[in-house]
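Let's practice the habit of predicting before peeking. Look at the sequence and jot down your guess about where helices and strands might fall. Then scroll down.
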Amino acid sequence: MSVTSPQEGPWLDDAAGRLIRPYTVSGGRTKPTTALDLLSMVMATGSSPQPHMGPEHSVALGLCDGPTSVAEIAAHLRLPAVVTKVLLSDLVDCGALTARAPRFHANPTDRSLLEAVLDGLRQRL
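Done guessing? Here is the structure:
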């Protein structure tokens, strides 16, 4: 049986999968104290997390050297988005992370914006 350390990633067993339930990681909490969207960008401030925080907090913080989306962190942690938002919210509350709401174009149905997106997709396909 091979178990990865918290520094390498979530608590996983090669055969059994996750060894702890996702909501155990957040202490059963499902509502973050900071408003975070899946596209919100978070970034480490250089401050350390509080000592009582779990290993997943440290792993999440390690993923935030540069601006990183909440969705990307959830994918790396292999945790549900709501649990990831709670963890990140804890880190924002203690000053270890900053969070920025996603930026959207003033008029998302603007024809020129939609045409630019379509042109970009055509170039990639």
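How did you do? The mean pLDDT is 78.
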